[in-house]
User: Which sequence fits this backbone?
């Protein structure tokens, strides 16, 4: 995983407790365990562990601004474990720890996956337009494969309640806003009310990743193929079109504020959101009725995620590029959500 790494700040990951715990669980640690923080994400805390021979990735929830459905490492582990038996590229799972006393929070460990993260515009500059196109089609291919998997046969039928999924999403993300909000924004309620009046017209069910975007994929830059799809903590059984809409929402220029610099996903080198929707619809053989409402919900969700990052920053948890600027994305994303809802008749 070629993402930014930094030395772990003292107290952030207690290796004196972690190493014997991992050894006791049968993890084959050959030497002294070292840890580096994998930077770039704004959700769960992620660390690379290595012993000089092998490497793993540890994930745990953040220390503040936690939104339960957005930081569920146990859910993430369950989904990735089930997907081991499919052709979908996911990291190999190692262990899940529910005992918060070990490092101060529940955590999961998976094997380290090789691949590059296209997170910033600078990362994207390193590859050709042809390879950008190959990566785009690979994202569509993997998303279509995910949405075609028989979730009941994989033991994931209890992961979510598909009936009424989009309506519950609208209520869930409104509740998340109330939990993390750092200010009053009237347009948040306007967008919420528009979604209540004109929700996306859910028509089918599948496994939903919940946060599908290019920088949640590890890419082989020689071929454009995906070596691993990561960040499954919001996965569920629901409406697959919400994944397509989230992929498109991350193209909004406001996401640059969350990353702290121009993001790879906001580059004009990618196909437009409407083109992405058409490519997915052609790949799956489906119609995307109510596309404006799906985009409205996706922008609402991303705005709440950005506000949660701002809440952690205000609480003194999280620093560096993006943490201090994420709040700027929120009104821009909400405004875009309202415009998309107007297309589908959700606003007046």
Assistant:
């Amino acid at each position: 995983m070629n993402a930014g790494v930094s030395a772990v700040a003292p107290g952030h990951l207690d290796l004196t407790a972690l190493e014997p715990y991992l050894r006791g669980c049968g993890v084959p640690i050959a030497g002294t365990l070292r840890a580096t923080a994998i930077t770039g994400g704004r959700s769960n805390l992620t660390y690379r562990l290595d012993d000089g021979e092998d490497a793993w990735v540890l994930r745990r929830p953040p220390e503040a601004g936690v939104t339960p459905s957005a930081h569920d490492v146990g859910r993430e582990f369950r989904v990735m474990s089930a997907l081991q038996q499919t052709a979908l590229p996911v990291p190999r799972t190692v262990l899940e720890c529910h005992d918060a006393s070990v490092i101060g929070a529940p955590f999961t460990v998976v094997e380290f996956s090789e691949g590059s993260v296209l997170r910033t515009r600078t990362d994207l500059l390193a590859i050709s337009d042809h390879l950008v196109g190959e990566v785009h089609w690979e994202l569509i291919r993997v998303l279509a494969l995910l949405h075609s998997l028989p979730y009941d046969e994989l033991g994931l039928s209890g992961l979510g309640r598909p009936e009424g999924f989009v309506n519950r999403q609208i209520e869930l993300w409104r509740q998340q806003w109330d939990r993390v909000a750092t200010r009053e924004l009237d347009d948040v309620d306007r967008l919420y009310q528009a979604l209540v009046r004109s929700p996306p017209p859910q028509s089918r069910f599948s496994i939903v990743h919940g946060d599908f975007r290019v920088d949640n994929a590890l890419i082989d830059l020689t071929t454009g193929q995906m070596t691993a799809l990561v960040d499954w903590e919001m996965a569920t059984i629901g409406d697959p079109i919400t994944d397509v809409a989230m992929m498109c929402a991350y193209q909004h220029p406001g996401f640059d504020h969350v990353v702290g610099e121009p993001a790879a996903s906001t580059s004009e080198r990618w196909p437009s959101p409407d083109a992405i929707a058409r490519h997915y619809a052609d790949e799956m053989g489906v119609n995307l009725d109510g596309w404006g409402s799906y985009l409205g919900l996706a922008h609402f969700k991303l705005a709440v995620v950005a506000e949660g990052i701002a809440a952690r920053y205000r609480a003194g948890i999280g620093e560096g590029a993006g943490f201090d600027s994420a709040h700027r994305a929120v009104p821009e994303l909400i405004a875009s959500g309202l415009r998309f809802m107007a297309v589908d008749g959700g606003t007046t």
